Amino acid sequence: QVQLVESGGGLVQAGGSLRLSCAASGTIFSINAMGWYRQAPGKQRELVAIITSEDRINYADFVKGRFTISRDNAKNTVYLQMSSLKPEDTAVYYCNVNLIRVGIPGKYDYWGQGTQVTVSS
Questions:
Q1: What average pLDDT does the segment 65-90 reach?
Q2: How far is CA 110 from the centre of its chain?
Q3: 78 burial class (0-12, 13-18, 19+ CB within 10 angstroms)?
Q4: Which of 72, 94, 102, 112 is the residue whose CA sits 20 to 30 A from 20?
Q5: Residue 90 — pLDDT band, cuts 50, 70, 90?
Q6: What integer pLDDT is reported at residue 98 of this predicted model?
Q7: Do 6 and 112 touch, CB atoms closer than 8 A?
Q8: CA-CA distance, 92 to 32, in Å (whole number)?
Q9: Residue 8 to residues 20, 30, 54, 99, 119: CA-CA distances in angstroms?
Q10: What pLDDT is recorded for position 120?
């Protein structure tokens, strides 16, 4: 089994900052890409940022210059540092991890439970 545990969401005023964390645990052989997605009410889930095992990073245009994704491979953890937050950043944020499990062929995607980020104006 593999579990993803997210933390760090909350309520913040516009212009403020939050840091999200997502820790993966379980029967993990190796982790490939780790990413963050978000889903606002009435909207589809969208990619926020992704970081590969080679530390290649892609950001959605709407967060460039404001959010920073990073990972700690020793802790199987991905972070999302969010700054200059705007009300339109309000959403449930989900982490996604693509990994290889011990003893099981193939690569698999896992999702965190989601953490609410609310930005007040």
A1: 97
A2: 11
A3: buried
A4: 102
A5: very high
A6: 97
A7: yes
A8: 23
A9: 4, 25, 25, 23, 14
A10: 97
| Closest CA relative to residue 45, chosen from 1, 109, 101, 2 | 109
What proportion of the chain, given as a percentage, has pLDDT over 70? 100
Question: How is residue 19 written in tokens?
Answer: 């840091």
Beta partners for 97? 34, 110
The partner residues of 58 in beta bridges, in order of sequence, read 50
- Distances 104 to 2, 3, 4, 113 between C-alpha atoms, Å: 12, 16, 18, 23
CA distance 37 to 40: 10
Pairing between β-strand 2-7 and β-strand 57-59 as defined by DSSP bridges: unpaired
